[in-house]
Design goal:
The complex is a heterodimer.
Chain A lengths: L10 E10 L2 E11 L4 E5 L6 H9 L4 E8 L2 E2 L6 H6 E4 L13 H11 L5 H11 L16 H13 L5 E5 L7 H18 L2 E6 L2 H7 L2 E6 L2 E7 H5 L6 H18 L1
Parallel strand pairs in A: 3-8, 3-9, 6-7, 7-8
Antiparallel strand pairs in A: 1-2, 1-4, 4-5, 9-10
Helix pairs in contact in A: 4-5, 5-6
Chain B lengths: L18 H6 L6 H17 L2 H18 L1 H4 L32 H37 L1 H16 L2 H12 L3 H28 L2 H8 L4 H37 L11 H8 L8 H28 L1 H4 L2
Classes of the chains: A alpha/beta, B mainly alpha.
Family (chain A): Belongs to the ABC transporter superfamily. Glutathione importer (TC 3.A.1.5.11) family.
Function (chain A): Part of the ABC transporter complex GsiABCD involved in glutathione import. Responsible for energy coupling to the transport system.
Catalytic activity (chain A): glutathione(out) + ATP + H2O = glutathione(in) + ADP + phosphate + H(+)
């Protein structure tokens, strides 16, 4: 499942820089992601992996470089069409749902914005797809568990039928059993809908499991790009990646014990 | 259907749900039920507070009295008997006595409640939306929009309220409408500040980012997603300010710049009673007590609303 370099990449990033008040959070990152590929971004906290995702979504101040979607370079302002093609799931399901809106209203909002008719059906279908029945439809976020909230967030991202899904550590705020459920759900949705995933995680096991290729990041710059098999077989070249692997192995061993 | 609601029985198993269970249901089946359930929870939290209930009763009583003033008032509020009924002390005939024009003070108080409500409601309707709009726009937009709007707010805040209101009334001419305008103009800045602070808190939250990522326009985000979040603290603040509004209106009335004679405005009534405050104390005391009661009512109500509506204390 290597990237097919012959076709136009679904997402192409060239020399991307993001600067927050004189702090360079991203220092010239470039990458290409093929259609239907699942791409992971790995690194420790503050390595710029989430910033990269936010920059693609238009939530971070890009100071240099270009982002192209299916070969079309994006301007500084994203239009509605962009948000029908690219959606994002946030890390913290407790913070990403409006506290005063019911699930119904949360899912209806994107449909209203994009003027999609047939809202009733779509909402019910979206809830079914993420494994929540219509019994959840009129609940408020505080009446849901973390895993259920994240499912609602995924349903909200999918309801406009995007082709690229940006996932910002979608499971790191959930406990282990729920994590697996949500990851399986995402995996299934990607297969069913032929989606392109860009997934940020600090958990190498999750990334190896979910992604075809990945990029290791440090201090806002690329360390190296690997395929999942390469990572699984420890065929890494950079010291930083070796250290990262060693750190996560300590974690896996304790987990398996 | 991975996780069931914890204790509530499924509605189908028990078709005869009591109204309370229906309202508190963990899995509402319609939008209305969800909304009503939420309102019911807020009401229960509010009703737990005895003092807040007293405040609510005072305000409801004020509204009722204002509506049915024609039925309740035993005498005319504007026409008195100068020959026989001047400055009579409280008696069975005139419960709260009469003033220097021979008018029944109770009747004047009852009709005066209309003016009080008129002022309070109009000021709230004018000032709260202005403050809300300026605060949320400035908080969400940031940058130079924020700087300009907040400096304007600062300028208004820098004036002593009553003095600015006095200047405005002096410019516009005395009268109750102008008093309302003057008070409204001077009372929006704190609301703008509150709304801005609340907006700043939520503008970078993930759920607002999520709405932006849906492609929502800034106007939509401010109107539909940010404003509702500012509403509860604003309602609380406006309710707590009602007492101040009443006092400012009374102050303007007292200075002769608010309601003009013979309107039975409470502040103006105190002003006219001032001359005989030592010998005929009831002329000034009755409206004074009325102002005190209504102000107290609004303050108690505001405190209760703060406990009931504040999302931080309710864990929502």
């Amino acid at each position: 499942m290597m990237a097919n370099t012959a076709s136009t990449p679904a997402l192409s990033i060239r020399g991307l820089e993001v600067t927050y008040d004189h702090f360079r959070a991203l220092k010239g990152v470039s990458l290409d992601i093929a259609p239907r590929e699942s791409f992971g971004l790995v690194g420790e906290s503050g390595s710029g992996k989430s910033t990269l995702l936010r920059a693609v979504a238009g939530l971070a101040p890009v100071s240099a470089g270009t982002i192209a979607l299916d070969g079309q370079t994006l301007g500084n302002r994203r239009d509605k069409e962009f948000y029908r093609r690219v959606q994002m799931v946030f890390q913290d399901p407790y913070g990403s749902l409006h506290p005063r809106h019911t699930v119904d209203r949360l899912l209806r909002e994107p449909l209203d914005i994009h003027g999609v008719s047939d809202g009733e059906n779509r909402i019910n279908r979206a809830l079914d797809e993420v494994g929540l029945g219509s019994g959840f439809r009129f609940r408020y976020p505080h009446q849901l568990s973390g895993g259920q909230r994240q499912r609602v967030a995924i349903a909200r991202a999918l309801i406009v039928e995007p082709s690229i899904l940006l996932l910002d550590e979608p499971t790191s705020a959930l406990d282990a059993s729920v994590q697996a459920e949500v990851l399986n759900l995402l995996e299934q949705i990607r297969r069913d809908r032929a989606l392109t995933f860009v997934m940020v995680s600090h958990d190498l096991a999750v990334v190896t499991h979910m992604c075809d290729r990945l990029m290791v990041m440090q201090d806002g710059a690329e360390v190296e790009q690997l395929t999942s098999p390469e990572l699984a077989e420890r065929r890494v070249t950079k010291d930083y990646t070796v250290n990262l692997l060693r750190a996560s192995e300590g974690f896996t061993r304790r987990q398996s014990a | 259907m991975s996780v069931m609601g914890n204790t509530t029985p499924p509605p189908l198993a028990e078709p005869q749900l009591s109204r309370r269970e229906w309202l508190l249901s963990d899995r509402p089946t319609s939008r209305t039920q969800a909304k009503l359930g939420r309102a019911y929870v807020a009401w229960r939290r509010f009703a737990e507070n005895r003092l807040a209930l007293i405040g609510l009763i005072i305000i409801l009583a004020l509204v009722l009295v204002a509506i049915s003033a024609d039925l309740l008032a035993p005498y005319s509020p504007t026409i008195g008997n100068l020959a026989t009924a001047r400055l009579l002390p409280p008696s069975w005939e005139h419960w709260l006595g009469t003033d220097d024009q021979g008018r029944d003070i109770l009747s004047r108080l009852i009709y005066g409640s209309r003016l009080t409500l008129y002022v309070v409601v109009l000021v709230a309707i004018i000032a709260a939306p202005i403050g809300l709009l300026i605060g949320t726009v400035s908080g969400y937009a940031g940058g130079w929009v924020d700087a300009v709007l907040m400096r304007i707010t600062d300028i208004f805040l820098a004036f002593p309220k009553l003095v600015l209101a006095l200047a405005l009334v002096a410019a516009l001419g005395p009268g109750i409408e102008n008093a309302v305008i003057a008070i409204a103009v001077t009372s929006w800045p704190p609301y703008a500040r509150i709304a801005r602070a609340e907006t700043m808190q939520v503008r970078n939250s993930d759920y607002i980012s999520a709405v932006r990522l849906m492609g929502a326009s800034p106007i939509r985000i401010v109107l539909r997603h940010i404003m509702p979040l500012c509403m509860s603290s604003l309602i609380v603040r406006v309710t707590l300010d009602m007492a101040g509004i009443i006092l400012t209106a009374a102050g303007l009335g007292f200075l002769g710049l608010g309601a003009q004679p013979p309107l039975p405005e409470w502040g103006a009534m105190i002003a006219s009673g001032r001359r005989f405050i030592l010998d005929q104390w009831w002329v000034a005391a009755a409206p004074g007590v009325a102002i005190l009661l209504v102000s107290l009512g609004f303050n108690l109500l505001g405190d209760g609303l703060r406990d009931a509506l504040d999302p931080r204390s309710s864990g929502q």
